[in-house]
Recover the amino acids of this structure.
């Protein structure tokens, strides 16, 4: 009898356990079906509205800052450096002495020639007095005059050679790094230093041949616009009348103002150039962070109300609408600052995912959280640059 009681108790316990396990499995299956019907959990994203703005039409290029006058200072004569009268980076005036070469031999020769000149002048004065008294023939007077002219010419020639052994600044400006030392022997053409004028600088750049006809003298040119590097404005000063037959492009020169030259746009610098055209156009723009680049094309994710297969809005249990991200392929245009132009695919007013677009797929449910406002700007100036 006791065996039957024990067996019965075991059967009851096993039945209870089986019933409990069946209930748990049933709940898990129901939860899985509900989760499958609800889909994946929504992704948290930030959004921004596509807006319509008026942008200036511009032509872009790269250029080089060039000086109005710049030379490599060198010596015309051979000789040893006797004295250096400048320091690297010094500002100099026109005609200021930079380097003096050894002129000892030439100065000694000059003394001898000057003595001969003085003797020729004294002899000529004596001949003139004697010729007036008809004591010497006219041929003697003409010979003495010729001797004086020859001696004077020799003195002037040697003085010119001595002067050429003194290197002077051909114009006012700033010197570069000194490349010679005292005692160094220089041959004609040996570089001494660089000299750049303080006058107005220029920016030289090229544009495609089909764009050159749109340019006019006096047009505004922006240098390094929106960049943390040295920037400024210029105006078109010259347009090359002949197109380069190899590159099929035209060369343009823009004149920088004095302030831009002093603010760091020095000769030799590489700069970005934007020529401002008189035409303006309306564009649809979004934050550049909302544009997704891929090998099969560029796209954005537009946030819309989520709908079921029959086209009815899908709502939460408390009746609120749910949102989904629809992938829209677009044709992007020009980028300016933190914005990018969208030429096709987006209309003004549509909400575009600007934060978190990289983790979305077409139709993915989303939750919008715009608590972090990135504030995109057309001309950003990051503080960490």
């Amino acid at each position: 009898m006791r065996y039957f009681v024990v067996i019965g108790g075991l059967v009851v316990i096993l039945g209870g356990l089986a019933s409990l396990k069946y209930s748990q499995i049933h709940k898990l299956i129901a939860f899985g079906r509900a989760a499958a019907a609800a889909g994946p959990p929504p992704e948290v994203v930030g959004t921004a509205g596509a807006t319509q703005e008026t942008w200036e039409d511009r032509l872009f290029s790269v250029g080089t800052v060039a000086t109005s006058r710049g030379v490599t200072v060198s010596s015309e004569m051979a000789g040893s450096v006797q004295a250096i009268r400048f320091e690297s980076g010094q500002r100099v005036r026109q005609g200021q002495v930079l380097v003096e070469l050894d002129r000892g031999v030439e100065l000694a020769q000059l003394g001898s020639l000057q003595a001969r000149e003085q003797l020729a002048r004294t002899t000529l004065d004596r001949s003139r007095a004697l010729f007036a008294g008809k004591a010497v023939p006219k041929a003697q007077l003409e010979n003495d005059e010729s001797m004086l002219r020859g001696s004077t010419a020799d003195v002037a020639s040697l003085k010119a050679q001595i002067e050429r052994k003194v290197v002077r600044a051909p114009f006012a400006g700033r010197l570069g790094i000194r490349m010679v030392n005292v005692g160094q022997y220089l041959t004609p053409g040996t570089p001494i230093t660089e000299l750049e004028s303080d006058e107005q600088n220029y920016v030289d750049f090229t544009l495609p041949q089909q764009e050159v006809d749109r340019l006019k003298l006096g047009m505004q040119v922006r240098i390094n616009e929106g960049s943390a590097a040295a920037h400024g404005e210029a105006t078109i000063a010259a347009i090359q009348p002949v197109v380069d037959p190899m590159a099929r492009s035209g060369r343009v020169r823009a004149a920088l103002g004095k302030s831009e030259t002093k603010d760091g746009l020095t000769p030799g610098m590489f700069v970005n150039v934007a020529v401002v055209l008189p035409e303006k156009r309306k564009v649809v723009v979004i934050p550049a962070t909302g544009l997704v680049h891929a090998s099969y094309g560029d796209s954005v994710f537009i946030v819309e109300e989520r709908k079921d297969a029959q086209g009815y809005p899908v709502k939460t249990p408390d009746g609120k609408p749910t949102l989904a991200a629809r992938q829209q392929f677009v044709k992007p245009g020009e980028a300016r600052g933190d914005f990018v132009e969208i030429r096709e695919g987006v209309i003004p007013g549509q909400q575009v995912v600007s934060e978190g677009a990289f983790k979305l797929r077409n139709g993915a449910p989303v939750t919008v959280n715009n608590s972090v406002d990135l504030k995109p700007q057309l001309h950003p100036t990051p503080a960490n640059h």
